[in-house]
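Table S2 (continued). Query chain:
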Amino acid sequence: MNLDIVTAAPLDGVAHGFFGRAGGVSTGDVAGLQCGYGADDDREAVDTNRRLAADALIDGASIAAPYQVHSPDCVIADAPFDERPKADAVATRTPGLLLGIVTADCSPVLLADVEAGVVAVAHAGWRGAIAGVTDKTVGAMLSLGARLDRIAAAVGPCIAQASYEVSPEFVDPFLAEDPDNARFFVEGPSGKPHFDLEAYVAARLSAVGVRRVWLAGLDTYAHKDRFYSFRRAMHRGEANYGRQISLIGIRPQPV
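Corresponding output:
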């Protein structure tokens, strides 16, 4: 099947990809490479889609993916989880293991210190982002032997500012954290603020010392045929919405 895989040049030394909805075996409103167990989708189809995505990066690799709860928490994995931990980021130094998170407008973040052989993935919605999920992810990587000046990060397809209208009250915790966060908001056509999630996540990464931060610049809301979007599904009155997967891992050494 032809899969839509967005890759980032700073992560060229490791297996990675932000997957779109093309390919896959799911049908109906979530047709395509729907990889979220939380969607109203056949579990066998989800398992097949995850297998297709994993094999596109490292043939036969297992995926360690958390039970996402919009938290700032990062766990360390050296094998697939027997029971998925409630967390929103995973780090590893184990070759051949793919780390994964699913999104449907939130920012997927892939990180790597290629030289140290340490990688991580984070699910950064606004709640997790402001709570520090990327900060904790970088910290977990450092605990595994990564070096801050070598870590590269990529922020994948997510809802863009033009599509992300929020309430005036939404702005308050961001301004309370730092008045300079006003730069991530603009007034939209309706007079309500619009939030730049991608830029905010990038700024959080830069603030902890990540020097190379790559941005996909792709709006999940605007590209119906390419990406799943929670907000688009809600606006269209659809009863279900899909999730795309993002994966990263260290390729095993040839035997």
